[in-house]
Task: structure prediction
Amino acid sequence: MSLPLPPHFDAAATSRVFRVPYAERAAEARQWAIAHGIQPAAADSRRVGLLLVDVQNTFCLPEFELFVAGRSGTGAVDDNARLCTFLYRNLDAITEVVATLDTHSPLQIFHPIFWVDERGEHPAPHTVVSARDVEDGRLRINPRVAAVIPSLGPDPAAYALHYVRRLEEGGKYPLTIWPYHAMLGGLGHALVSAVEEAIFFHSVARQSPARFEIKGRHPLTENYSVLAPEVDVDPAGRSLVGRNTALVDHLLRLDALVVAGQAKSHCVAWTVADLLAEIEKRDRSLARRVLLLGDCSSAVCVPGVVDYTEAADAAYRRFAAAGMKVAPSGGAREIFAPP
Result:
């Protein structure tokens, strides 16, 4: 039987930024645990993790830089109302929360300032950069940026071509120039307030610290997945960013893992794909431990520009075919039972 929603929760609050009153919520969480017989997470015989991918203001609020609207136009806001509801109602069954944080600075390969065209202008957000663009000189790495990033090496043009080719050869999305987003230290980088509040409430009620995973800080590669970068080596074969094997090991030691977040077509899809690749190396039956909340993630969709909805849905079908479960967040209490 699922738990009731605590009195402080307002589903409409997922659309705004607010300060979480920690002392008040902590006192309420302790009383909530007593009133509903919620045991500390350390007592769980079946360990269930909730992996929240990039549930940050930059992706989840309409006034921020990369709001994931989905086709509905209100995608991430609605997703987070359902996500918070899911966390509160299943507070006693979720052992721990793992939250990823997309984390950037201005001078990164997917931001406008990193590139210039033949006139010296920066490309507009949502520009797609192909290998042909680089080969023909339509876009090149901004020499002023190259001067302050030593890891680019003596030949930035070689790195630019190497990078876009690796993306195309690997069957991943081509390089997209994104608006400046998830700036470390800024409001966009922060978790959605209502989600932060729910995680905090869970941590106190279950006496279980949340685990936060930073991703995306290297200037020379995208990092949609929290488990691996899009490109992992430079043209000379030197490592850029390693795989997050510690997190993989941690997630696969859980008895069950529930996944939600943004965007379904990008950071969620690539994280799950990397997790599935590790599962297939180790033990395919582990896929049955993973549940994707189908109504708590939306695809990137910018009307008239891009729509990744079909690609996201196709990815989820592949995950389901591999043994993972896909289910709505409401009325899914049975997902916590052993397979």
Notes: The mean pLDDT is 95. The longest strand covers residues 96-102. The CA atoms of residues 249 and 278 lie 9 Å apart. The chain is about 30% helix and 15% strand.
